[in-house]
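Re: weekly structure request thread

Next one in the queue (414 aa):
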Amino acid sequence: MIKRLGVNALRLGMYVQRLELSRHSSTTLRDGFLLTTSAQITAIHRVGIKHVWIDELKGMRAVNARPWFSQVPGLSAPPASAAGDGIDSALENARQICLDGTLQMKQIFSDARLGKILDPLETLPLVESVIRSIEDNPTALLGMAQLKTQDNYTYQHSVAVCALMIALGLQYRLPQDTLQLLGMGGLLHDLGKALIPASILNKPGRLTVAESAIIKQHPLLGVAMLDPDTTPPAIRDILLHHHEKIDGGGYPFGLRDTAISRYARMAAVCDVYDALTSSRSYKAAWNPAAAIRNMATWKGHFDQSVFFTFVKAVGIYPVGSVVRLASEHLAVVTEASGASLLHPKVRVFFSLLTNEPVPARNLDLAVPSIGDSIAGPDAALGWTGTGFPVPEASLSRNGAGYAPQRQQEREWEG
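Done, posted below.
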Protein backbone atom coordinates (compact mmCIF):
# COMPACT_ATOMS: atom_id res chain seq x y z
CA MET A 1 0.00 0.00 0.00
CA ILE A 2 1.35 3.41 -1.01
CA LYS A 3 0.90 6.03 1.70
CA ARG A 4 1.79 9.73 2.02
CA LEU A 5 3.57 10.67 5.26
CA GLY A 6 5.02 13.78 6.83
CA VAL A 7 8.77 13.44 7.30
CA ASN A 8 8.39 13.57 11.09
CA ALA A 9 6.60 10.22 10.88
CA LEU A 10 9.48 8.48 9.09
CA ARG A 11 10.93 5.43 10.83
CA LEU A 12 13.73 3.02 10.02
CA GLY A 13 12.51 0.09 7.93
CA MET A 14 10.16 2.17 5.79
CA TYR A 15 10.54 2.01 2.03
CA VAL A 16 10.47 5.47 0.42
CA GLN A 17 8.67 5.07 -2.90
CA ARG A 18 8.85 8.77 -3.82
CA LEU A 19 10.25 11.98 -2.36
CA GLU A 20 7.88 14.93 -2.58
CA LEU A 21 10.36 17.58 -3.71
CA SER A 22 9.55 21.26 -3.82
CA ARG A 23 11.23 23.68 -6.18
CA HIS A 24 13.56 24.61 -3.32
CA SER A 25 14.59 21.02 -2.55
CA SER A 26 17.91 19.65 -3.80
CA THR A 27 19.25 16.23 -2.83
CA THR A 28 21.32 13.32 -4.12
CA LEU A 29 18.72 10.93 -2.74
CA ARG A 30 16.60 9.29 -5.41
CA ASP A 31 13.18 7.70 -5.27
CA GLY A 32 12.95 4.08 -4.21
CA PHE A 33 15.10 3.20 -1.19
CA LEU A 34 14.89 1.59 2.22
CA LEU A 35 15.37 3.75 5.31
CA THR A 36 18.03 1.94 7.34
CA THR A 37 20.02 4.71 9.06
CA SER A 38 19.12 7.81 11.03
CA ALA A 39 21.45 9.73 8.70
CA GLN A 40 19.07 9.13 5.79
CA ILE A 41 16.13 10.56 7.73
CA THR A 42 18.25 13.51 8.81
CA ALA A 43 19.26 14.14 5.18
CA ILE A 44 15.58 14.23 4.15
CA HIS A 45 14.85 16.78 6.87
CA ARG A 46 17.83 18.96 5.99
CA VAL A 47 16.90 19.48 2.36
CA GLY A 48 13.46 20.78 3.28
CA ILE A 49 11.31 17.85 2.15
CA LYS A 50 7.98 17.91 3.99
CA HIS A 51 6.26 14.75 2.73
CA VAL A 52 7.24 11.41 1.20
CA TRP A 53 5.31 8.47 -0.25
CA ILE A 54 6.10 5.09 1.29
CA ASP A 55 5.32 1.54 0.18
CA GLU A 56 4.29 -0.28 3.35
CA LEU A 57 4.46 -3.79 1.91
CA LYS A 58 7.82 -3.28 0.25
CA GLY A 59 9.34 -1.77 3.37
CA MET A 60 8.32 -4.57 5.70
CA ARG A 61 9.30 -7.22 3.14
CA ALA A 62 12.72 -5.65 2.58
CA VAL A 63 13.51 -5.49 6.29
CA ASN A 64 12.35 -8.99 7.08
CA ALA A 65 13.65 -10.68 3.95
CA ARG A 66 17.23 -9.49 3.52
CA PRO A 67 18.61 -7.20 6.26
CA TRP A 68 22.06 -6.92 4.68
CA PHE A 69 20.62 -4.94 1.79
CA SER A 70 20.41 -2.05 4.23
CA GLN A 71 23.73 -1.10 2.64
CA VAL A 72 22.00 -0.52 -0.69
CA PRO A 73 18.68 1.33 -0.31
CA GLY A 74 16.43 0.83 -3.27
CA LEU A 75 17.63 -2.69 -3.97
CA SER A 76 14.82 -5.21 -3.80
CA ALA A 77 15.24 -8.47 -1.99
CA PRO A 78 16.37 -11.33 -4.23
CA PRO A 79 13.91 -14.04 -5.15
CA ALA A 80 13.62 -16.87 -2.69
CA SER A 81 15.79 -19.88 -3.33
CA ALA A 82 14.69 -23.49 -3.12
CA ALA A 83 15.38 -23.23 0.59
CA GLY A 84 13.48 -19.97 0.78
CA ASP A 85 11.09 -21.05 3.51
CA GLY A 86 13.98 -22.07 5.75
CA ILE A 87 15.82 -18.81 5.12
CA ASP A 88 12.72 -16.73 5.78
CA SER A 89 12.09 -18.66 8.99
CA ALA A 90 15.68 -18.10 10.14
CA LEU A 91 15.44 -14.39 9.37
CA GLU A 92 12.13 -14.01 11.17
CA ASN A 93 13.62 -15.82 14.17
CA ALA A 94 16.66 -13.53 14.06
CA ARG A 95 14.44 -10.46 13.85
CA GLN A 96 12.51 -11.59 16.91
CA ILE A 97 15.71 -12.30 18.84
CA CYS A 98 17.00 -8.80 18.07
CA LEU A 99 13.68 -7.28 19.15
CA ASP A 100 13.52 -9.32 22.36
CA GLY A 101 17.17 -8.59 23.11
CA THR A 102 16.70 -4.86 22.60
CA LEU A 103 13.71 -4.81 24.96
CA GLN A 104 15.52 -6.85 27.60
CA MET A 105 18.62 -4.64 27.45
CA LYS A 106 16.46 -1.53 27.69
CA GLN A 107 14.91 -2.94 30.88
CA ILE A 108 18.32 -3.93 32.27
CA PHE A 109 19.68 -0.43 31.69
CA SER A 110 16.59 1.08 33.28
CA ASP A 111 16.99 -1.14 36.35
CA ALA A 112 20.70 -0.27 36.53
CA ARG A 113 19.87 3.45 36.63
CA LEU A 114 17.61 2.71 39.60
CA GLY A 115 20.48 1.00 41.40
CA LYS A 116 19.36 -2.62 40.93
CA ILE A 117 22.11 -5.24 41.11
CA LEU A 118 22.04 -7.57 38.11
CA ASP A 119 22.31 -11.35 38.08
CA PRO A 120 23.83 -12.12 34.62
CA LEU A 121 22.05 -15.48 34.57
CA GLU A 122 18.82 -13.56 33.92
CA THR A 123 20.07 -13.09 30.36
CA LEU A 124 20.85 -16.77 29.77
CA PRO A 125 17.58 -17.65 27.94
CA LEU A 126 18.23 -14.86 25.43
CA VAL A 127 21.87 -15.91 25.02
CA GLU A 128 20.87 -19.51 24.38
CA SER A 129 18.45 -18.40 21.67
CA VAL A 130 21.29 -16.41 20.07
CA ILE A 131 23.55 -19.49 20.17
CA ARG A 132 20.90 -21.63 18.47
CA SER A 133 20.31 -18.98 15.81
CA ILE A 134 24.02 -18.59 15.04
CA GLU A 135 24.50 -22.35 14.89
CA ASP A 136 21.53 -22.77 12.52
CA ASN A 137 22.14 -19.79 10.24
CA PRO A 138 24.83 -17.26 11.26
CA THR A 139 24.10 -15.03 8.28
CA ALA A 140 20.55 -14.36 9.47
CA LEU A 141 21.32 -13.00 12.93
CA LEU A 142 24.61 -11.29 12.11
CA GLY A 143 22.90 -9.53 9.21
CA MET A 144 19.82 -8.57 11.20
CA ALA A 145 21.96 -7.25 14.05
CA GLN A 146 23.41 -4.64 11.65
CA LEU A 147 20.08 -2.81 11.63
CA LYS A 148 20.05 -0.23 14.40
CA THR A 149 18.20 2.94 15.30
CA GLN A 150 19.77 6.01 16.87
CA ASP A 151 17.50 5.90 19.95
CA ASN A 152 18.16 2.22 20.68
CA TYR A 153 21.77 1.99 19.54
CA THR A 154 23.30 1.03 22.89
CA TYR A 155 20.81 -1.80 23.45
CA GLN A 156 21.05 -3.08 19.86
CA HIS A 157 24.84 -2.82 19.96
CA SER A 158 24.79 -5.07 23.03
CA VAL A 159 22.79 -7.73 21.18
CA ALA A 160 25.08 -7.46 18.15
CA VAL A 161 28.25 -7.88 20.23
CA CYS A 162 26.65 -10.88 21.94
CA ALA A 163 26.04 -12.47 18.51
CA LEU A 164 29.56 -11.67 17.30
CA MET A 165 31.13 -13.10 20.45
CA ILE A 166 29.21 -16.34 19.98
CA ALA A 167 30.12 -16.53 16.29
CA LEU A 168 33.77 -16.04 17.23
CA GLY A 169 33.49 -18.66 19.98
CA LEU A 170 32.04 -21.13 17.50
CA GLN A 171 34.99 -20.47 15.19
CA TYR A 172 37.23 -21.50 18.09
CA ARG A 173 35.00 -24.58 18.61
CA LEU A 174 34.46 -23.64 22.26
CA PRO A 175 32.07 -25.71 24.38
CA GLN A 176 28.47 -24.70 25.10
CA ASP A 177 29.09 -23.40 28.62
CA THR A 178 31.89 -21.14 27.34
CA LEU A 179 29.67 -19.85 24.53
CA GLN A 180 27.12 -18.92 27.18
CA LEU A 181 29.70 -16.94 29.12
CA LEU A 182 30.85 -15.16 25.96
CA GLY A 183 27.27 -14.33 25.03
CA MET A 184 26.38 -12.98 28.46
CA GLY A 185 29.61 -10.98 28.58
CA GLY A 186 28.96 -9.53 25.12
CA LEU A 187 25.39 -8.67 26.00
CA LEU A 188 26.39 -6.85 29.19
CA HIS A 189 29.78 -5.43 28.14
CA ASP A 190 28.50 -1.83 28.05
CA LEU A 191 26.28 -2.06 31.13
CA GLY A 192 28.18 0.79 32.76
CA LYS A 193 26.97 3.17 30.06
CA ALA A 194 23.59 3.12 31.79
CA LEU A 195 25.11 5.68 34.15
CA ILE A 196 26.85 7.81 31.51
CA PRO A 197 24.89 10.96 30.52
CA ALA A 198 23.24 10.65 27.12
CA SER A 199 24.61 14.09 26.25
CA ILE A 200 28.10 12.56 26.31
CA LEU A 201 27.25 9.23 24.69
CA ASN A 202 25.47 10.93 21.78
CA LYS A 203 27.60 14.06 21.46
CA PRO A 204 28.08 14.76 17.71
CA GLY A 205 31.56 16.21 18.02
CA ARG A 206 34.84 15.27 19.63
CA LEU A 207 34.75 14.65 23.36
CA THR A 208 36.52 16.97 25.77
CA VAL A 209 39.19 15.51 28.06
CA ALA A 210 36.69 15.56 30.93
CA GLU A 211 33.96 13.87 28.86
CA SER A 212 36.37 11.21 27.67
CA ALA A 213 37.37 10.51 31.27
CA ILE A 214 33.71 10.01 32.19
CA ILE A 215 33.13 7.54 29.35
CA LYS A 216 36.23 5.59 30.35
CA GLN A 217 34.61 4.88 33.71
CA HIS A 218 31.93 2.65 32.19
CA PRO A 219 33.84 -0.65 32.56
CA LEU A 220 34.24 -0.03 36.30
CA LEU A 221 30.64 1.16 36.64
CA GLY A 222 29.37 -1.92 34.82
CA VAL A 223 31.22 -4.42 37.00
CA ALA A 224 29.90 -2.68 40.12
CA MET A 225 26.33 -3.38 38.96
CA LEU A 226 26.86 -7.16 38.78
CA ASP A 227 25.87 -9.50 41.59
CA PRO A 228 29.25 -10.65 42.98
CA ASP A 229 27.77 -13.95 44.17
CA THR A 230 26.35 -15.07 40.81
CA THR A 231 28.65 -13.44 38.25
CA PRO A 232 31.26 -15.78 36.72
CA PRO A 233 34.79 -14.31 36.57
CA ALA A 234 34.78 -14.47 32.75
CA ILE A 235 31.84 -12.07 32.54
CA ARG A 236 33.43 -9.63 34.97
CA ASP A 237 36.60 -9.84 32.91
CA ILE A 238 34.80 -8.98 29.65
CA LEU A 239 33.03 -5.97 31.18
CA LEU A 240 36.17 -4.69 32.84
CA HIS A 241 38.75 -5.20 30.08
CA HIS A 242 37.04 -4.98 26.66
CA HIS A 243 38.72 -1.61 26.03
CA GLU A 244 42.25 -2.72 26.89
CA LYS A 245 44.76 -2.85 24.02
CA ILE A 246 47.65 -5.19 23.40
CA ASP A 247 50.15 -2.30 23.41
CA GLY A 248 48.94 -1.01 26.79
CA GLY A 249 47.16 2.01 25.34
CA GLY A 250 43.68 0.98 26.44
CA TYR A 251 41.62 1.57 29.57
CA PRO A 252 40.79 1.44 32.43
CA PHE A 253 44.10 -0.13 33.56
CA GLY A 254 46.40 0.04 30.53
CA LEU A 255 46.98 -3.72 30.56
CA ARG A 256 49.38 -5.20 28.01
CA ASP A 257 49.76 -8.46 26.10
CA THR A 258 49.08 -11.58 28.16
CA ALA A 259 47.72 -9.54 31.08
CA ILE A 260 44.55 -9.29 28.98
CA SER A 261 42.52 -12.51 28.90
CA ARG A 262 41.49 -14.15 25.63
CA TYR A 263 37.82 -13.44 26.37
CA ALA A 264 38.53 -9.71 26.78
CA ARG A 265 40.62 -9.74 23.59
CA MET A 266 37.70 -11.31 21.77
CA ALA A 267 35.32 -8.70 23.16
CA ALA A 268 37.63 -5.88 22.05
CA VAL A 269 37.47 -7.00 18.42
CA CYS A 270 33.71 -7.63 18.41
CA ASP A 271 32.93 -4.34 20.14
CA VAL A 272 34.99 -2.19 17.77
CA TYR A 273 33.78 -3.98 14.63
CA ASP A 274 30.12 -3.44 15.46
CA ALA A 275 30.74 0.17 16.49
CA LEU A 276 32.53 0.91 13.21
CA THR A 277 29.80 -0.64 11.08
CA SER A 278 27.01 1.27 12.87
CA SER A 279 25.84 4.84 12.27
CA ARG A 280 26.24 7.13 15.27
CA SER A 281 25.50 10.77 15.99
CA TYR A 282 29.18 11.58 15.36
CA LYS A 283 29.95 9.33 12.37
CA ALA A 284 28.51 7.42 9.45
CA ALA A 285 28.65 3.62 9.37
CA TRP A 286 31.66 2.05 7.71
CA ASN A 287 31.26 -0.65 5.09
CA PRO A 288 31.92 -3.99 6.91
CA ALA A 289 34.81 -4.84 4.57
CA ALA A 290 36.30 -1.39 5.11
CA ALA A 291 36.09 -1.91 8.86
CA ILE A 292 37.91 -5.24 8.59
CA ARG A 293 40.62 -3.78 6.37
CA ASN A 294 41.23 -0.78 8.61
CA MET A 295 41.16 -2.75 11.85
CA ALA A 296 43.92 -4.92 10.36
CA THR A 297 46.16 -1.83 10.16
CA TRP A 298 45.75 -0.77 13.81
CA LYS A 299 48.96 -2.21 15.17
CA GLY A 300 48.94 -2.75 18.90
CA HIS A 301 45.18 -2.44 19.26
CA PHE A 302 44.05 -6.07 18.90
CA ASP A 303 45.47 -9.49 19.46
CA GLN A 304 46.31 -10.40 15.86
CA SER A 305 45.52 -14.10 16.31
CA VAL A 306 42.07 -13.29 17.71
CA PHE A 307 41.48 -10.74 14.96
CA PHE A 308 42.32 -13.21 12.19
CA THR A 309 40.01 -15.79 13.76
CA PHE A 310 37.30 -13.14 13.86
CA VAL A 311 37.83 -12.50 10.15
CA LYS A 312 37.30 -16.21 9.50
CA ALA A 313 34.08 -16.04 11.51
CA VAL A 314 32.54 -13.06 9.67
CA GLY A 315 34.48 -13.24 6.40
CA ILE A 316 36.97 -10.86 4.80
CA TYR A 317 33.95 -9.46 3.01
CA PRO A 318 31.24 -9.67 5.68
CA VAL A 319 27.56 -9.86 4.84
CA GLY A 320 26.41 -6.37 3.89
CA SER A 321 29.74 -5.31 2.39
CA VAL A 322 29.56 -3.46 -0.91
CA VAL A 323 32.30 -4.68 -3.26
CA ARG A 324 33.64 -3.75 -6.68
CA LEU A 325 33.87 -6.66 -9.11
CA ALA A 326 36.42 -7.21 -11.87
CA SER A 327 33.52 -6.83 -14.32
CA GLU A 328 33.17 -3.20 -13.13
CA HIS A 329 29.94 -3.87 -11.28
CA LEU A 330 29.06 -3.10 -7.68
CA ALA A 331 27.59 -5.90 -5.61
CA VAL A 332 26.55 -6.48 -2.02
CA VAL A 333 27.77 -9.57 -0.17
CA THR A 334 24.85 -11.80 0.74
CA GLU A 335 26.58 -14.86 2.14
CA ALA A 336 30.09 -15.89 3.05
CA SER A 337 31.46 -18.88 1.17
CA GLY A 338 32.62 -21.87 3.14
CA ALA A 339 35.07 -22.67 0.36
CA SER A 340 36.97 -19.39 0.33
CA LEU A 341 36.93 -16.15 2.31
CA LEU A 342 37.84 -14.34 -0.90
CA HIS A 343 34.89 -15.62 -2.93
CA PRO A 344 31.55 -14.95 -1.20
CA LYS A 345 28.08 -14.97 -2.70
CA VAL A 346 27.05 -11.53 -3.92
CA ARG A 347 24.14 -9.69 -5.50
CA VAL A 348 25.07 -7.42 -8.40
CA PHE A 349 23.09 -4.18 -8.57
CA PHE A 350 25.06 -1.39 -10.31
CA SER A 351 27.32 -0.90 -13.35
CA LEU A 352 30.32 1.39 -13.02
CA LEU A 353 30.71 1.43 -16.81
CA THR A 354 27.28 2.92 -17.47
CA ASN A 355 26.89 4.53 -14.02
CA GLU A 356 23.40 3.05 -13.83
CA PRO A 357 21.61 0.37 -11.83
CA VAL A 358 21.36 -3.05 -13.49
CA PRO A 359 18.82 -5.84 -12.97
CA ALA A 360 19.85 -7.46 -9.70
CA ARG A 361 21.30 -10.95 -9.99
CA ASN A 362 22.96 -13.39 -7.63
CA LEU A 363 26.50 -14.69 -8.16
CA ASP A 364 28.48 -17.31 -6.29
CA LEU A 365 32.05 -16.12 -6.85
CA ALA A 366 33.41 -19.47 -5.64
CA VAL A 367 32.09 -21.11 -8.82
CA PRO A 368 34.89 -20.92 -11.47
CA SER A 369 32.47 -20.72 -14.39
CA ILE A 370 31.09 -17.41 -13.07
CA GLY A 371 34.22 -15.71 -14.41
CA ASP A 372 34.09 -12.75 -12.02
CA SER A 373 35.88 -11.81 -8.81
CA ILE A 374 36.20 -9.06 -6.26
CA ALA A 375 38.53 -6.28 -7.40
CA GLY A 376 38.04 -3.94 -4.47
CA PRO A 377 36.75 -4.25 -0.92
CA ASP A 378 34.22 -1.45 -1.08
CA ALA A 379 32.44 1.07 -3.23
CA ALA A 380 34.68 4.05 -2.60
CA LEU A 381 33.68 5.47 -5.93
CA GLY A 382 31.04 8.06 -5.10
CA TRP A 383 27.99 6.01 -6.08
CA THR A 384 25.59 8.25 -4.13
CA GLY A 385 23.27 8.24 -7.12
CA THR A 386 21.87 4.90 -5.94
CA GLY A 387 20.17 6.69 -3.07
CA PHE A 388 22.66 5.91 -0.31
CA PRO A 389 24.52 8.97 1.01
CA VAL A 390 28.17 7.96 1.32
CA PRO A 391 30.15 10.60 3.28
CA GLU A 392 33.25 11.50 1.29
CA ALA A 393 35.32 11.77 4.46
CA SER A 394 34.71 8.10 5.18
CA LEU A 395 36.00 6.84 1.84
CA SER A 396 39.47 6.07 0.58
CA ARG A 397 40.73 4.25 -2.51
CA ASN A 398 43.96 3.17 -0.88
CA GLY A 399 42.48 2.02 2.41
CA ALA A 400 44.80 4.23 4.43
CA GLY A 401 41.95 5.49 6.55
CA TYR A 402 38.22 5.63 6.04
CA ALA A 403 37.59 8.33 8.63
CA PRO A 404 39.39 11.55 9.48
CA GLN A 405 41.95 11.17 12.23
CA ARG A 406 40.00 13.55 14.44
CA GLN A 407 37.11 11.06 14.56
CA GLN A 408 39.05 7.96 15.45
CA GLU A 409 38.76 8.44 19.21
CA ARG A 410 34.98 8.13 18.85
CA GLU A 411 35.20 5.45 16.13
CA TRP A 412 36.80 3.03 18.56
CA GLU A 413 34.22 3.73 21.26
CA GLY A 414 31.46 1.15 21.03
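The chain has a mean pLDDT of 79. The first strand starts at residue 2 and ends at 6.
Next request, please.
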